[in-house]
Amino acid sequence: MKYIDTSIPEVKIIEPTVFGDNRGFFMETFRVDEFTQNCSEKPFVQDNHSKSSHGILRGLHYQLKNTQGKLVRVTSGEVYDVAVDMRESSATFGQHVGVILSGENKKQLWVPEGFAHGFYVMSESAEFVYKCTDYYAPEHEISLTWNDANLAINWPLTNNQAPSLSAKDKNALSFNEAPKFT
């Protein structure tokens, strides 16, 4: 696997080596020895799998307690995936990384603890799988406004139409009012 630096040093794009022929393909999606050397030593405790339709935006989410690092990938379809630095003490505080993840490009994104995370479904549907370094704790979850002007995320919205959001995401906090990590 190739670990690629982004504009935020702690956020990594991971490109697997894919071996394929006319029968299909094989790839490693995770190796603990490489991952701990390049990303984090914190173990994963939970795997999640979601399916979403075109135009759905999930996020931007983070947990103040039970803070999660996430290793995310798409097994089918295509999404625009975003990580926002919510660590006030960081040199990249308030900045974000955005990358297209798809079943075709097989890229993964490491989103460390202290970051808000979200994705927008660009294909007809997308299946999204991810490993977490802590358990989901909805009582500690914060939803950050997806289109906050302070973040200036250039979401690739289809025909510039507003995305479909959950009730939680419709009532999300602005970047200025959202609690931060120290």
Automatic annotation (TrEMBL):
Family membership: Belongs to the dTDP-4-dehydrorhamnose 3,5-epimerase family.
EC number in record: 5.1.3.13
Enzyme class at the top of the EC tree: isomerase
Assembly behavior: Homodimer.
Catalytic activity: dTDP-4-dehydro-6-deoxy-alpha-D-glucose = dTDP-4-dehydro-beta-L-rhamnose
PANTHER family (UniProt xref): DTDP-6-DEOXY-D-GLUCOSE-3,5 EPIMERASE (PTHR21047), THYMIDINE DIPHOSPHO-4-KETO-RHAMNOSE 3,5-EPIMERASE (PTHR21047:SF2)
Keyword Isomerase: yes
Keyword list, A-Z: Isomerase
Species this protein is from: Colwellia psychrerythraea (Vibrio psychroerythus)
Name of this protein: dTDP-4-dehydrorhamnose 3,5-epimerase
NCBIfam families the UniProt entry points to: rmlC
